[in-house]
């Protein structure tokens, strides 16, 4: 399909997982339209995009679009694809005054699900909702799922990669109610037959050190490796265990099997591991179906509003063990 658009700007300011979820759009727009594709995000997330071969140029901001507005105006874009759809992205679109495409954020349906328990949510992943909005310009989903490019060579990773099979266990998450509790982490480690590599930031390093001191099969890399080194470890792992985090989406991008613990958020909100229709990758959702208070947020919370954190704490030990055996068979 011929397109009048010669230069396209894609907007997603944050965060790691949400940026990874834009990767099918970036790829399909570039490949199917064959035009220049630029991307704008926050500075701290640049590393998630800088090795993507389908992006021709990246703009970054610390806080406000005014930091790069003059430069962006000089680009003379023909089209904006807004995959963030917030006040900041709307201000950018207004300033540029050109055609834009956005998506249905289903905020009302999410609010209803979180605060009334009534479920009006469409049974459709966020990525598929992105592509619904792109039908007007002839861009379709290629079925290849997410993609991620860490940019590291075998030489870069020579001293990092284990020689034996291992499972990546992600301890970190922006919100505490999306982190796997220590009690459940111990069950995982005790029942895995593989080496366990712990990933996350410095904020979970103390927890990781405690687990390492108890279990000889544990390697603690929390706060020790970069995001892209963590991505490479996830890529090469037998499977990945995580909460609702950016590394969970990277695992899906690499077609790595996943075991995802759901706490204050829920997979029904439409941002679960997305492998694409061309692949059948094993993934297991760990969900406490015996409570009615989860999800309590569409993005996560620092503390459980009810003080008990039963969505994670009451997950069945037997279900966890069974899931591990399935993934390690």
State the distance separating the first and last CA atoms. Answer: 46 Å
Elements, N to C (H/E): EHHEEHEHEHHHEHEHEHEHEEHH
Shape: globular
**Total count of helical runs of at least 4 residues:** 13
Largest sheet: 6 strands, parallel
Gyration radius over CA: 20 Å
Number of strands: 11
What is the helix content? Answer: 25-40%
Provide the structure class. alpha/beta
Record the strand order, biggest sheet: 8-7-6-9-10-11
CATH topology group of the largest domain: Rossmann fold
Mean pLDDT, all residues: 96
Instruction: Give start-end ranges of low-pLDDT stretches.
Output: none
Please describe what this structure looks like.
The protein has two domains: 7-137, 3-Layer(aba) Sandwich (Rossmann fold); 154-328, Glycogen Phosphorylase B (Rossmann fold, 3-Layer(aba) Sandwich). It contains 13 helices and eleven strands. It has 329 residues and is of the alpha/beta class. It starts with 6 loop residues before the first strand and ends with a helix. The protein is 33% helix and 15% strand. The strands form two sheets. The chain has a six-stranded parallel β-sheet, sandwiched between helices. A five-stranded parallel β-sheet has the order 3-2-1-4-5, with helices on both faces. The model has no long low-confidence stretch (mean pLDDT 96). The radius of gyration is 20 Å and the shape is globular.
């Amino acid at each position: 399909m011929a397109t009048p658009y010669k230069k396209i700007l894609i907007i997603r300011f944050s965060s790691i997982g949400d940026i990874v979820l834009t990767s099918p759009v970036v790829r399909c727009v570039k490949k199917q339209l064959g035009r220049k594709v630029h991307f704008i995000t926050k500075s701290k997330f640049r590393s998630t995009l800088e090795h993507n071969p389908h992006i021709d140029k990246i703009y970054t901001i610390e806080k406000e679009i005014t930091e790069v507005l003059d430069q962006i105006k000089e680009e003379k874009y023909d089209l904006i694809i807004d995959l963030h759809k917030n006040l900041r992205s709307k201000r950018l679109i207004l300033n540029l005054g050109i055609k834009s495409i956005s998506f249905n954020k289903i905020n009302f349906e999410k609010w209803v699900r979180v605060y009334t328990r009534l479920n009006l949510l469409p049974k459709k992943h966020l990525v598929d909702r992105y592509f619904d909005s792109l039908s007007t310009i002839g861009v379709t989903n290629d079925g290849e799922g997410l993609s991620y490019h860490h940019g590291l060579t075998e030489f870069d990773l020579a001293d990092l990669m284990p020689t034996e099979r291992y499972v990546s266990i992600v301890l970190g998450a922006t919100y505490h109610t999306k982190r796997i509790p220590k009690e459940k982490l111990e069950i995982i480690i005790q029942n895995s037959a593989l080496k366990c590599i712990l990933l996350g930031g410095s904020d979970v390093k103390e927890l990781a050190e405690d687990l390492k001191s108890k279990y000889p099969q544990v390697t603690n890399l929390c706060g020790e490796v970069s995001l892209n080194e963590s991505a490479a470890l996830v890529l090469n792992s037998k499977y990945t265990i995580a909460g609702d985090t950016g590394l969970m989406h990277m695992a899906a991008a690499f077609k790595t099997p996943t075991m995802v613990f759901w706490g204050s958020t829920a997979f029904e909100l439409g941002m679960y591991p997305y492998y694409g229709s061309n692949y059948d990758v094993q993934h297991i959702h760990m969900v406490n179906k015996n409570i009615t208070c989860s999800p309590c947020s569409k993005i996560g919370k620092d503390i459980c509003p009810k003080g008990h954190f039963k969505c994670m704490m009451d997950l069945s030990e037997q279900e966890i063990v069974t899931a591990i055996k399935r993934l390690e068979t």
